[in-house]
């Protein structure tokens, strides 16, 4: 079947009318080209969106106290309550599968009045009282100095880690930052490090750098928070989903604060894991759409090849009759037509893959010379699995395109074929 004579015959058949062959092959070329580009674009968008999370611990949720909507144990609805540091210990002791339970307090913000002063300069920034593990939940690059540690927490050190945007606002170019002091709401804190956020989780990338981190204990002492906790960042381990564990966490809080077990409004939360899964589901749907659209376009090309092969069979009726009269079997005739169809499909399809790969290389070359840190589209690409899948689709398409013409070819009787002019 793969003799030299057969391949010469295939080349001669396809090259007898180059213009027709090229027009026929273009449909398959365009279909596979669009398929690869759509899949690569989906990957580029996915990479950009995930970059926005900046390596955040996505198996996390953020939880804060709201007002109960139901009376319970003689306590009225609409009352105010606050999380306490004891709640953190209770959650750790009673809920398994958790990796981090980080209490957090917050002061000020870029939307409020100026709360940070240094010399004649001032600014409004978010100030967080945190534990050291927060850097594992909301990763950041430490650009100088260090981040908070447990010695800072245990000794209630008044130290701070500031964002690059805070540094540019409060300090002159070339001015030494480490070891200097900033005044937060009237209390002096020594700067021990600077950071740059890896991502912003979909928030404002500029404001993500306008934050200040201080030890939770020092924050509570300096700003008279006592044992109050503003909110918590809670992360599950790799064997558990925070979405499945949060009902147990809520139960611990409701029990400790005498909240009705069925009150769904008393505890506010943002489930990052749930939202991240929705985004992943969106990209799965986009990939399915890409395959659907690409295969539909490819199918139109396959139909074109099938039509041309029918014409080719009609033109070669006399030849087929001679071959049948000389003893050619139906399978050899069928195999010849199928082989021509598969060959044309694969050549045009692989040309489409090469063209799409070349375009992606140009796009990635352009993106490499561009700052993509805040872009929602980076590194559009396809993996080897996509190429193998495309090749299998091409082989199947070639068989499909040549099936009907091949069947028509073997139905021709040698005597009738020899009579055809």
TrEMBL record:
InterPro entries: ABC3_permease_C, MacB_PCD, Macrolide_Exporter_MacB. It comes from the Bacteria. Residues 292-414 form the ABC3 transporter permease C-terminal domain. Pfam families: FtsX (PF02687), MacB_PCD (PF12704). The keyword Transmembrane helix applies. The chain crosses the membrane at residues 21-41, 288-313, 342-364, 384-404. Keywords: Cell membrane, Membrane, Transmembrane, Transmembrane helix. The keyword Transferase does not apply. It is a multi-pass membrane protein. Residues 21-249 form the MacB-like periplasmic core domain. It is found in: Cell membrane. PANTHER family: ABC TRANSPORTER PERMEASE YTRF, MEMBRANE COMPONENT OF TRANSPORTER-RELATED. Belongs to the ABC-4 integral membrane protein family. This is ABC transport system permease protein. It comes from Mesonia maritima.
């Amino acid at each position: 079947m793969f003799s030299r004579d057969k391949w010469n015959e295939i080349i001669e058949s396809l090259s007898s009318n180059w213009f027709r062959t090229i027009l026929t092959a273009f449909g398959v070329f365009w279909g596979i080209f669009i398929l690869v580009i759509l899949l690569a674009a989906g990957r580029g968008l996915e990479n950009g969106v995930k970059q926005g999370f900046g390596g955040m611990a996505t198996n996390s949720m953020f939880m804060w106290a709201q007002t109960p909507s139901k009376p319970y144990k003689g306590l009225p609805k609409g009352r105010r309550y606050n999380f306490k540091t004891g709640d953190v210990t209770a959650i750790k002791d009673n809920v398994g599968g958790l990796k981090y339970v980080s209490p957090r307090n917050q002061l000020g913000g870029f939307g409020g009045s100026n709360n940070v002063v240094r010399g004649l300069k001032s600014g409004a920034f978010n100030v967080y009282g945190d534990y050291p593990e927060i850097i594992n939940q909301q990763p950041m690059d430490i650009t100088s100095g260090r981040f908070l540690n447990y010695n800072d927490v245990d000794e209630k050190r008044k130290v701070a880690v500031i964002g690059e945007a805070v540094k540019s606002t409060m300090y002159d170019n070339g001015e030494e930052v480490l070891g200097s002091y900033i005044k937060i709401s009237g209390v002096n804190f020594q700067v021990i490090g600077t950071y740059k956020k890896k991502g912003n989780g979909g928030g404002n990338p500029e404001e993500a750098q306008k934050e200040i981190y201080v030890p939770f204990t020092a924050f509570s002492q300096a700003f008279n928070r006592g044992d109050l906790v503003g909110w918590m960042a809670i992360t599950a381990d790799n064997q558990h989903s925070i979405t499945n564990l949060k009902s147990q966490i809520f139960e611990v809080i409701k029990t400790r604060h005498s909240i009705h077990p069925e009150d769904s409004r008393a505890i506010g939360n943002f489930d990052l894991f749930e939202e991240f899964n929705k985004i992943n589901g969106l990209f799965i749907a986009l990939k399915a759409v890409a395959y659907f659209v690409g295969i539909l376009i490819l199918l139109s090309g396959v139909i074109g090849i099938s039509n041309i092969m029918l014409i080719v069979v009609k033109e070669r009726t006399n030849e087929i009759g001679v071959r049948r009269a000389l003893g050619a079997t139906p399978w050899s005739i069928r195999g010849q037509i199928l082989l021509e169809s598969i060959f044309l499909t694969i050549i045009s399809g692989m040309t489409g893959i090469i063209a799409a790969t070349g375009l992606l290389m140009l796009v990635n070359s352009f993106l490499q010379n561009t700052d993509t840190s805040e872009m929602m589209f980076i590194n559009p690409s396809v993996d080897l699995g996509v190429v193998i899948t495309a090749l299998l689709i091409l082989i199947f398409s070639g068989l499909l395109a040549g099936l009907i013409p091949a069947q028509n070819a073997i139905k021709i009787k040698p005597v009738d074929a020899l009579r055809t002019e």
